[in-house]
């Protein structure tokens, strides 16, 4: 907010700057959509954030839930909101046992949310969740309802150890009455996939070889040390290096192992330090980039100070931290 205080400032910022400001937050598609949306707002709405639901929904990166939340909370419009917290509350209150990720069940939940918003002035329901304060107009109850459902799911109707005894909607809740709170929502079993990567921290004359990830892939435009995925279990690290760089290093030293998760993937990144003599070039090819391609695709030699100023993928920033200390 300090660096880019206006929509126009976001629209005009360089991609490198927005990635650096977003560094460490993950889901980097969001910051790219943020800039695309800012540019669209400047071009089509004169730099003022639109208030019409369809216009908000048309912005890059804005889905039905986010558009509903913005229009409901910021602009006090009677539109439904359905996030994970609201889904949990509604499936429990109405005893919905089907998986909310399935198309038909999800549509049913959206319909329920829309009906509740439409009847938000009815004290039979809204008065239980958020009774009006003295002198308060009932007109904005649809906004209060959405916020109340989200807060109820976040603080009381939690995924585990729900606080049913103090829940203001206890008398309405089918799951509580039928002792099914722990079973709902029925999200099914989510499978995880294990992946292993080898990264090479190649050093020459105090500088390190890094590359920028191309557009259209995970962590696009972020910087990283050259790495490759191992898909066949055990791997000969020296042979992997030779395959990628067409040279065999004199020394490869284990540096660190980073474990992290991205969505359903459980990733292990093993980093190896490779010191080179001053005459060696170690220009990568094949999976890393072919000779003759732009430097950002092949890789560039940067000092730690320069590297620290760039936006790195979070696992690779952890590797860099090991080099600094």
Describe the fold and architecture.
This protein is an alpha+beta fold and 325 residues long. It has 2 domains: 7-183, Helix-hairpin-Helix base-excision DNA repair enzymes (C-terminal) (Endonuclease Iii, domain 2, Orthogonal Bundle), CATH 1.10.1670.10; 193-324, Nucleoside Triphosphate Pyrophosphohydrolase (Alpha-Beta Complex). It contains 14 helices and 7 strands. The protein has helices at 7-12, 15-22, 29-45, 53-57, 64-74, 84-93, 103-118, 126-129, 141-155, 174-177, 237-245, 295-298, 304-308, 314-324, and strands spanning 193-204, 207-212, 223-224, 227-230, 253-262, 265-275, 300-302. Strands 1, 2, 3, 4, 5, 6 and 7 form a 7-stranded mixed sheet that branches. β1 (193-204) and β2 (207-212) form a beta hairpin. α6 crosses α9 (141-155). The longest helix is centred in the first third of the chain and has 17 residues, at 29-45. It is globular and about 75 Å long. It starts with 6 loop residues before the first helix and ends with a helix. The model is unreliable at 123-127 and 284-297 (pLDDT under 50).
